[in-house]
């Protein structure tokens, strides 16, 4: 399993799509699901499933969200397709947005 996380200051940004595009690798990642957009605990959250060229962990998911003036992107690669979504849900559930 491989987990990536990016965060940066982005005052005035309410759309985390640009950071989701940054964390997805054009050479290795392919979005396989629809881009889900939700408001979760006051945060704009985007989520998508991916496949990758990494043979040991070909499945994954990626998400991005805003919290105050910060933007976060998260991605995981896993050996099984069904484990990627719950890992994102767990990571987001542990995240506290103090604004």
Summarize this entry quickly.
By secondary structure, the chain is α+β, with helices and mostly antiparallel strands.
Structure characterization notes:
With 99 residues, the protein is an alpha+beta fold. The chain has one domain (2-94): Protein Transport Mog1p, Chain A (3-Layer(aba) Sandwich). 21% of the residues lie in helices and 44% in strands. It has 2 helices and 6 strands. The protein has helices at 17-23, 81-94, and strands spanning 2-9, 29-31, 36-40, 43-52, 59-67, 70-78. The protein is globular. The model has no long low-confidence stretch (mean pLDDT 93).
Uncertain regions spanning at least 5 consecutive residues: none
N-to-C SSE string, H for helix and E for strand: EHEEEEEH
Q: Compute the average pLDDT.
A: 93
Share of helical residues = 10-25%
CATH topology-level fold name: Protein Transport Mog1p, Chain A
Q: Which architecture per CATH? A: 3-Layer(aba) Sandwich
Largest sheet: 6 strands, antiparallel
List the helices and strands and how they pair.
Elements: E1 2-9, H1 17-23, E2 29-31, E3 36-40, E4 43-52, E5 59-67, E6 70-78, H2 81-94
Antiparallel strand pairs: 1-6, 2-4, 3-4, 4-5, 5-6
């Amino acid at each position: 399993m491989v987990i990536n996380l990016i965060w940066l200051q982005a005052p005035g940004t309410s759309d985390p799509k640009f950071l989701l595009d940054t964390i997805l690798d054009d050479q290795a990642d392919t979005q396989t699901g629809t881009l889900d957009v939700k408001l979760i605990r006051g945060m704009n959250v985007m989520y998508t499933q991916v496949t990758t060229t990494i043979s040991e962990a070909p499945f994954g998911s990626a998400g991005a969200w805003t919290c105050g003036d910060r933007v976060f992107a998260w991605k995981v690669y896993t050996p099984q397709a069904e484990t990627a979504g719950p890992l994102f849900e767990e990571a987001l559930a542990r995240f506290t947005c103090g604004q």
